[in-house]
Amino acid sequence: MNPVRARPSSPSRKRWTFPLLAGGTFILSVGGACAIGAYPVAFTDVLRILLTGGASLPDDTAVAIVWKLRLSRALLAFLAGCGLAASGVVFQGILRNPLADPFTLGVSGGAAFGAALAITLGLAAPLYPLAALAGAGGALAFVLLLATGRGTLRRETLVLAGVVVSAFLAALIALVKALDEDSVAGIVFWIMGSFQGRGWHDMPLLLPGLVLGSVPVVLLVRELDVLSLGDTEARHLGVNVPVTRLWLLLGASALAASCVAVSGIIGFVGLVVPHLVRLLIGGNHKPLLPASAFAGGILLLWSDVAARSLLPDGVELPVGVITALLGGPFFCYLLRRSGQKERGQA
Predict the structure, then answer these.
(1) Which residues on neighbouring strands pair with residue 152, listed in sequence order?
(2) Residue 37, Cβ neighbours under 10 Å: how many?
(3) Are 162 and 106 in contact (CB under 8 A)?
(4) Beta-carbon neighbour count of residue 69 at 10 Å?
(5) Pairing verdict, β 152-153 and 148-149
(6) Tally of CB atoms within 10 A around 147
(7) Which residues contact 86 (CB under 8 A, 6 or more apart)?
(8) Which residues contact 87 (CB under 8 A, 6 or more apart)?
(9) Secondary structure class of 160 (helix, strand, coil)
(10) What's the pLDDT at 157?
(11) C-alpha distance across the termini of the chain, in Å
């Protein structure tokens, strides 16, 4: 009698489903992003260029466009989207606020002020990201200084300090624009977010922040679930709440700051994507974090494709406009849906 061959268990199939789908979606998205543009390249030619380096393709222009321009930009957009969405997951968890995003604590305001100051001072364009990164770090340090009272880091004081610092930085940016009207266009375009002119040379600025920020976030993902229950419950379960919150805050801020330094201010990715993924797979942060990061990366990658492809003659839209147009109506739907659910339960 032949033994019955055991079928793979359901958990085993589920374990491989997400990596396979994610890998296929990533390859198709990067390939599509490299194919679409003012100079169209066939998708099959893109795959040949990526696999062989373009050795078998006679069109040197297509090879140069894919390797030097579109591939680096697509990867930057994907990684920035991953960082912003993952940061949003962490902020919403540690602050226990569904409206929190990577910019709640003034990270975006600090980055915008740093870039605005660099533009006004007439610094070289490659220095804008460094100035933005310095501004984001300074803003976060000021928020932590204000929020740390009596040696503790409380959720409520963090939010209040972030609101105060963000408002102050917004006033400083307005002052800079008023004092130098010639720089207004450059400041506004940078604040609205764009990957125009970004390439391989920006990777060293983005990757260290992503790697360093990911370390505490990944290591403390279980504690993030516990913190979402509240400080009292977390203490009863043996979590050092102030220290854990500080490390998660630093990790999430490093993720957001490195992304903002490269791309400028891109809203709604860190706010809407975690909400959407949470509706699909639940609130457990261990699967929520990688799923949100991947979804944020794909969203920002295709938003950037739309930003550089919608207008004719190579004219680009700020990618922040695309994400706002996509995320604004969807977030309104989420708020309306939440309100209807609360009324139904009442």
Answers:
(1) 149
(2) 17
(3) yes
(4) 16
(5) antiparallel
(6) 22
(7) 214, 217, 252, 255, 289, 292, 293, 296
(8) 101, 102, 213, 252, 253, 255, 256, 259, 270
(9) helix
(10) 82
(11) 61
60-102 per-position pLDDT tens digit = 788 888 888 899 999 999 999 999 999 999 999 888 887 788 7
The Cα 102–Cα 254 span in angstroms is 10
- Token pair, residue 46, equals 């893109």
Cβ 73 vs Cβ 240: under 8 Å? no
Copy the structure tokens of residue 239.
């979590």
Instruction: Name beta bridge partners: 149.
Output: 152
Tokens matching residue 222: 């279980």
From the list 309, 222, 323, the residue with the least C-alpha distance to 266 is 323
The total number of residues written for the chain in this structure: 346
More confident residue, 342 or 208: 208
pLDDT (0 to 100) of residue 6 = 47
How far from chain centre, in Å, is Cα 16?
Answer: 25
Q: What is the pLDDT of residue 111?
A: 85
> What is the C-alpha to C-alpha distance for residues 318 and 119, in angstroms, rounded to an integer?
17
| Greatest pairwise CA separation for the chain in angstroms | 89
Kindly tell me if the per-residue pLDDT of 119 is higher than 90.
no
Q: Over range 144-159, report the average pLDDT.
A: 76
Confidence of residue 59 (pLDDT cuts 50, 70, 90): low
90-129 burial code (b ≥16 CB/10 A, e <16): bbbbbbeeeebbbbbbbbbbbbbbbbbbbbbeeeeeeebb
Q: What is the CA radius of gyration of the chain?
A: 22
Residue among 148, 178, 147 nearest 163 (CA): 147
Q: How far apart are CA 71 and CA 86, in angstroms?
A: 23
Query: What's the pLDDT tens digit per position in 314-328?
Result: 788 889 889 988 887
Q: Which DSSP string corresponds to 243-270?
A: HHHHHHHHHHHHHHHHHHHHH----SHH
Pairwise CA distance, residues 238 & 53, whole Å: 53
